[in-house]
Amino acid sequence: MKKALIFWGGWDGHEPQLVSKRFADILENEGFKVDVHDNQECLKDLEKLKELDLIVPCWTGGELISECSKNVAVAVGSGVGLAGCHGGMCDSFRKDTEWQFMTGGQWVSHPGGDGVDYTVNVRRGSSPIIEGIEDFKVCSEQYYLHIDPSVEVLATTRFPLISYYHASNKPIDMPVVWTKFWGIGRVFYNSLGHHDDVFDNSPSAQVIMRRGMLWAAQGKEYALKNGLTAEKYMNNAKMY
Questions:
Q1: Nearest to 23 by CA among 155, 178, 198
Q2: Domain for residue 162, yes or no?
Q3: Residues near 109 by Cβ (< 8 Å), separated by ≥ 6?
Q4: Does 56 map to a domain?
Q5: pLDDT of 172-197, one tens digit each?
Q6: Beta-bridge partner residues of 29
Q7: Residue 44: which domain range?
Q8: pTM above 0.90, yes or no
Q9: DSSP letters along the chain, please?
Q10: For 81-107, what is the mean pLDDT?
Q11: Taking 70 as the threshold, does the pLDDT of residue 169 lie above it?
Q12: Could you give the number of structural domains in the chain?
């Protein structure tokens, strides 16, 4: 049985407890054993983390204990998947640059705040995660992020829609959904999910989230079957 850990906390406005429950239900329906924690103490045992198939953070803002930050980076680098949404993963721990390096992006703004009507444009053929999903509408926060150029972008949204300082620049397509690798671990992110009900109001967002979590959790098994190891990525880890 695959094992997943969900840890939640930080700013309550993103409804981390509700989102965590939703994700736990999804994973349990897929046959996972899921542990859910409302603290960071669950990240202090590196060996237990390395036994997992998936880690799902739902923690906006705040600070990540240094030991926990290193443990998650090592665990994911060794093959454990990492998957999250919205501010619960890419507006977490703003002072932790290693976290940002691992997750692939950092929130910087959402012009217009909540209640912006925008379109998520799916990059067809880019990944099984978005296979068969058409472009869809969302009414929520439209996330503007600073992005790791190595990510594989699966869906985007067009800026600007709202007049703000950024509007004097050319129109751009901002990543909404992406994947990347960290060592031999798989990382998945979906910027949707400001409130828990976004996944009910835009069902494609939940389909993408479910598929993304499953994809990330398959990384360890894939690595084992294909003889992939993390050692070659760890040569300089002690420098940090």
A1: 198
A2: no
A3: 144, 164, 166
A4: yes
A5: 999 999 999 999 999 999 999 999 99
A6: none
A7: 3-107+174-239
A8: yes
A9: --EEEEEEEE-GGG-HHHHHHHHHHHHHHTT-EEEEESSSGGGS-HHHHHT-SEEEEEEEBS---HHHHHHHHHHHHTT-EEEEEHHHHHTB-TT-HHHHHHHSEEEEE-TT-TTEEEEEEE-TTS-GGGTTPPPEEEEE---EEEE-TTSEEEEEEEE-SS-SGGGGSPPEEEEEEEEEEETTEEEEEE---SSTTHHHHSHHHHHHHHHHHHHHHTHHHHHHHTT--SGGG-TTGGG-
A10: 98
A11: yes
A12: 1
Structure-token pair, residue 193: 């999910």
Arithmetic mean of pLDDT, 121-135: 96
204-231: pLDDT as tens digits:
999 999 999 999 999 999 999 999 998 8
Spatial distance between the Cα atoms of 106 and 61, rounded to a whole number of angstroms: 11
Contact status, residue 57 vs residue 187, Cβ threshold 8 Å: no
Mean pLDDT (the chain) is: 96
Which residues in 152-163 are b (16+ Cβ under 10 Å) and which e?
A: ebbbbbebbbee
Domain membership of residue 164 (yes or no) is: no
Q: What is the CATH number of the domain that holds 62?
A: 3.40.50.880
Residue 89 CA to its chain's centroid (Å): 5
CA–CA dist 44, 36 (Å, integer): 15
**Within a domain: 146:** no
Count other Cβ atoms within 10 Å, centred on residue 35: 14
Token output for 106: 């950092």
Q: Residue 142 carries which side chain, given as an amino acid letter? A: Q
What span, in angstroms and rounded, lies between the C-alpha atoms of 119 and 55? 29
Report the residue count for the chain. Answer: 240
